[in-house]
Amino acid sequence: MVRVAAAQFDVGQDVDANLATCLRMIDSAAGQGAELIVLPEFCNHLSWYRDREHARELACRHGDAFLGAVAERAARHRVLVKIGVTLARDDGRTTGASLLYGPDGALLGEADKQVLMGAENDHLDPATSVGPVVATAAGRLGLYACMEGVINEITRGLALRGAQVLLNSLNSFATDEASLHIPVRAAENKVWVVAANKVGPLIPADRLREVGAALGVPPEWLHGAGESQIVAPDGTVVARAPRTGEAVVVADIDPSAADAERARHLATRRPERYGPIAQPPRERTAPVGAPSLPVAVVRGDASLVRQAIAEGARLIVLPEGSPVTAEEAAQALRDATPSLKEASPAVQDTAPAGRDEAPAVQGTAPDVREGGAHVVLGTGALVGPDGEVPPREVHQLPWGRLAIVAGEDSRHPEEFRLAALADADVVAVPFTAREPWELRLGLPERAAENRLNIVAAGPDGPDGLAGAILDLPADFTLWTAWKGPFTGQISHPVVTPVKNADALVLGAVSPAQSVNRFVSRGTDLVGGRPWPLAGALLEGPQ
Q1: β-pair partners for 450
Q2: What is the mean pLDDT of the chain?
Q3: What is the pLDDT of residues 418-453, one digit of tens each?
């Protein structure tokens, strides 16, 4: 067993004061017996600069007084310390760097941030190589930071290269970091995650009111969201800090506990399919989907398919193992909507789309009443009124683009990334949930990190849940005008649960919302993924 700690605290513009806080928090964690200590991102200076030259001037250098003091304190306590700072590299780049110091004070590993968030793009340079997996007495450790955990590629690559414990340093105001993005990376990779976030203002205190007014959010939401945590490989949070206030949380973990389970889980991936993930994004030419699409999950016979269509559903998803056949589904569609009978059109062979910060919308969004309903069988086949539709990567339907991810594939983020890269608006998921994290964390994250609507149906599952309808909200990030009050959640979908007792659940999703993938200014969730560094995803686990 190894005792690990995550420390959260406030960082300002006084570099000496920030160093003193870092050393004090290391002392506090070591005093509680921690052997591995994780500090937040940008510990050396508030992530707020006049320009790129200012950021480089204030950045750390290897061996300088700031990093030297951190290394000395790691050696004094004989502990591992992971810290996030801005780093001036000898080649002229200034990066957001994760640095790992060993019990002797030596630098054991470093990883530049691969995905920059918002204004970080104005001041910093992204990584040009992947970070290492570092073998230590506390296990094989992988390093990542903040926005790198809002998408799946970086943490997945670390797990595939052998990491047992992932160390995340954050500088985030988003409350769905703690509720979704942090724990899902543990569960989907079967690793431990130790995550340290900031508290206090993330911009200069004297600018809070001005910036809050410009963004249309209360100034208090421009603070670090706290809730630093330690997460087990099943997604269970075993230690969590408060939402506000300086804190250190500790837990005893067994880094090798999930090794066998992780190997089994990763072995069910299909890396031969994942080539597009490591290729540059294509330009998109697809039309915008419908503003709203009525959908249903049906866990019963064909009579419930008829009922769902009669109540307005235009996409019906059946669970894996459903007894409803293609012939029965097609007959139900013909019986329920004779006036809307149509042959399912072939997918358009057009390139997907570059997404701008304010996506250009051409043409009129489709009216779903103009087309018939479709059923996704438990096998993953799509059925229209004229019968089963030939399988395709993406089906072009009257309301937008549909992808289908069925069965065991639903446990892997790569499959949903492929759907996003093919510009799906909605993903149907006939599956069987085997572990609580799949519905509690996995599917919500697939919607959030790809901007995909999801309709998932399964047989009775764990925690009383069998599926879910996940709708993309119009309110998304700080960089778009919010219709409702700002909640601190930047990408979490609106979830309608499907319970084990439910036979028919009606809902709606928003195909048109999939157009906007910018989680922040200049940061595209899909097009901005670090595709040149995603090679590990095309291979099996090491």
Answers
A1: none
A2: 92
A3: 999 999 999 999 999 999 999 999 999 999 999 999
| Residues sharing a CB contact under 8 Å with residue 111, sequence separation 6 or more, in sequence order | 97, 98, 127, 130, 131, 132, 143, 144, 145
Dist CA 221 CA 205 (whole Å): 12
Which among 344, 341, 347, 307 is positioned nearest to 324, based on CA atoms? 307
pLDDT of 117 higher than 50: yes
Q: Yes or no: say if 470 and 494 are a contact pair by the CB < 8 Å rule.
A: yes
293-317: average pLDDT? 97
What is the separation, in whole angstroms, between the first and last Cα of the chain? Answer: 24
The three-state secondary structure class of 144 is strand
Q: Rounded distance, CA 162 to CA 168, Å?
A: 16
Predicted confidence at residue 487, as pLDDT, reads 86
Q: Are strands 395-397 and 94-101 parallel, antiparallel or unpaired?
A: unpaired
Task: Estimate to the nearest angstrom the gap between the alpha carbon of 293 and the chain centroid.
Answer: 24
Matching residue, tokens 């005093």: 31
Q: Which residues pair with 430 in a beta bridge?
A: 457
Question: Exposure pattern of 150-178 as b/e (b: 16+ CB <10 Å)?
Answer: bbbbbbbbbbbbebbbbbbbbbbbbbbbb
DSSP structural state of residue 518 = E
Query: CA dist 416 to 123, 130, 196, 464, 473, Å?
Result: 31, 23, 28, 24, 18
Pull the structure tokens for residue 43.
């510990």
